[in-house]
């Protein structure tokens, strides 16, 4: 086989070379010797066909991984005979390869037309991604002409998501593409530039750009098309042209402020008068918009967009001029002196919606459209209802039913959820207008869609089940066809279409030949597999390994002035409990006061209220985690209601507004002012030691002197001895206040303070949080002076903390003064001088709250005080803390028929894009009062009569006073209540087994609270056991490590099944293999054998093909994936823990195996789903994909106790270990040596050094003996080993077993010898060199009673497939940079059959690269969570400065 690779050459060409699996000649030792497996260029050209016909032949020298004098195979290369394993070290070495070189024009053509004729290496696939991105940019017009040297060129215009995608492509450049040297960003940038130019010229084929003949500009324009790029001009003229073009490019690309276009629809009494209003908008803060009229009224500079604009009027004209080049209809407006709006008729408005708005938006301009546009209810759609010809619910058991069975169907037409009759449709067709107001809302009418709809209403009849499924699941949205809004059916077909088949199917029992018992969830799974088989469909058993990470008992309640978890409240305050049959009630042993909203149709002000009783109930159900955009979070039962804009509700979705208290009340006790001041600086800038020493750092020594005096006064007043505090200045100019007092430490600890916490674990003591207002104000003033900053550009105060607890406490304390602190998590550099990138909780105060902060809190620093005063002098942005009034106002306008101006506020508030201030909302309430009182009607009646006034007068006459009164009351509540309205940003269902809590609050009844791989073997064996003898055999493909597992499980659960293992050098071939298959019910083989014996396996008419650990075929380009997908079978099942690991193409590959063609071809899938979801975060495309794939994916949560009641929880913990002195010395020596070498290197050499450095440092963290490769003693030299010994002593004393994982086989061997000698027991050791026979024996011994209690495994050899449930302890001695690998290894113990809590410990050396990367590891689980890991290459792209910070050994790392 051939594997073709690609690299971008310095000459600006694409170089192609290929590996050949044919055995090579003997390797030589010459420098840059010929690659022994590289195919000649002519062979590569022949393999690629006509697409490579224009390539020239050359050669390139690549530095490739090498061992034993030969280059290693790429991952994509599969040999018929595996090469002998080399024990030599792997290193980079130069190899010369013959190349087929293509210019950009030929390269784009080839990359856009790649097929599956040959295997593609990662570098070639990456180049194809770049070419596809280039074509996409050209298609969307995101490019500009340029001058490049003496040539004309097209260059990409990268902004926003496009710029982010370009950076992602550079970061993802495979190592093989960098083997020739070069910076990834430069390589990808050069490739993208060249391919955009080539793609643009291909798109302009046959077009000639005319210019002045004989002029430099004319020559340049002519060179922008065709193949000849050279500009015929002398150097000086070219330089002048290049400067002019560059200036024009800067103008075309725009800046920080852009033009914005808002389409305004006609009033209720109008239908034709549409308009587009112009405005300026901050490009990075779209909510900041200034109307053109305000721009023209401004004199000189403008500060309203959070940035200074010296010439706003010129900016507006420039931006409108840029836009007019794209949308020429703006020209009429630009002929006026002060353009601010463009009037349109209904046809023009529709043209703007369909053509102008998308064009302007794609070019980077702001576009604001009516909220109804784009919603399903604004377009005509079709719904298909099908009815099976058998009784509903019988499909699953009807063996005659299949993909060709027929169902009856009928079409319906609808606007959103409202059906349309044929009469209504014909009346709409007569209007011949693209937009019409129907039933109170604007809808789009397309003549083709109307005609198609009338035709559909007359159709109906029958279709096959296969046609129905394709139509209902794909629901293609062809812009030229009538959109299909829903496809429904009765019975089990309907359940399948809705993704509910598994839930509604009756569980079935396994056949009598099955020698086991299935749990209820397994019986339902068996019914699901049988059901899909009856329809000729395949399925994916996708079993999630994840656990819920949050318990309802951890939710904090504001009680007695402080934040207390619900779990702690019950533990500390619950008296004797009484059961009510479901839960427990208990009266509090001490008074508990919460804050509550007083009653009424809409709740009133915040009041203090006593808790009468505490309640808890043990549940096993789905809870709902709700997160708001201000950082608030709550985990509640689904029946629990929260206060929203329309009252108490449990119907909560993303985008809704929920109420958070604007103010909290508590009458606390005062705290000594000096103690308050000292604590503020101690918690914010202090470092505490267990000895009672306290060190506070601050550059301003006058501040430290003030804190020092407070410390002395605290000691004197409280009778606490404080040793003489001293202030020194370090060599960096930073002042340090040293305070030493064991008595002070004990004083605070006795009052609940946790002394000695790291930054992330700090908390403000409860006696301060629950103090009186004066204490709170003083503490906040000093704390914000230490940690806060004023950000004038954003008109806000910002504060950050590594501690989530502190941020929640600050938000609670500020709420005592009505100040809203909104916080979120961001990664920032640590402020302790280390510069480490850590997750910080960043809080901001803006809008009206900023003035409250200035009034009640402020700063003790004069400079910050002055900055704050200057910011507060500017107007507040109402969208920060505004009142969401748009829904009420627009509905009031709609139901009354009155113009917007009659409600007393501007029309901008009716569209929902701008929130009102509380004052503006009050004006709207006053306007409604005038309407309700009749005053507005009387005033309007005095006007001269016209056809317009007649319509408004009639609207007043028909006024629904009660209905408008209800709306008025609702708006008045929003404007005047003591709540603020936060947006729901996430609603997540979390399965929880444990206690949930509630509190009975006197009078007000509300309170403030803040914020599986399953045992699939048995199911599949039960399914196979039910196959009749006539149906044929099942082929099971799995990793080699699982072959023995399948043999054992089949012998145990289905002893009547005949199993043939097709594996090993002595496996059956030819007629012998065919005879073995005929005599078997199950044939078990491995992925590598499936690829090598693809022809022989493909000749067998398999009844079923099952792939276990299906992630092995996630890469569709590999030979084994193609071979497995090509196997003929009537039924297919894929078993995998994660259908999506790195990209959606993985899901396509697995689903294309299970149900070929369901997701279309790979190219179409990429265009329709992968690119929109992965590149643009398109949630709508993700939802469509979930709808299509959902019916064929049976997803299990192994922690769902309603499914598997006997599986215990998995307890994960990170164990920090210190280095010994020897380790620290070696660590620092490695850092110093390798950083110097890294600084002198570049390209692939530098990346190799970075990875080598990380490997060396991890070895040092494990043990000096591993790094030094010596045979000296192990005991007493490693912090990790010492901690491991302590843990294993406890494990063995309890009679339990443990798995010990290391990624290093050498270290695993060391551990085996040391632990065996230390404990006097046998220690098993599994690594890649262990044969299958020995591996199976090890597993059997470990699982058996009395077997060895300790099992050391190398992560790669023991990370998947094995069942090791005899262990209930898992220790990851060293860390792997791929979280999915660690999780799979952990789950060798955390599997079905495990009846004890599994404790998972992950060792990390404090203050080292391990601790700094550990946090990043936890962040690498994004894509799989959205639809159903990653490596370490990103680390090689860090700068030397960032690497120095990452590798640096921090203080506190060493403990002797």
From TrEMBL:
Residues 678-819 form the DOD-type homing endonuclease domain. Residues 1283-1439 form the Helicase C-terminal domain. Residues 997-1157 form the Helicase ATP-binding domain. Keywords: Autocatalytic cleavage, Hydrolase, Protein splicing. The keyword Hydrolase applies. This is SNF2-related protein. It comes from Phytohabitans kaempferiae.
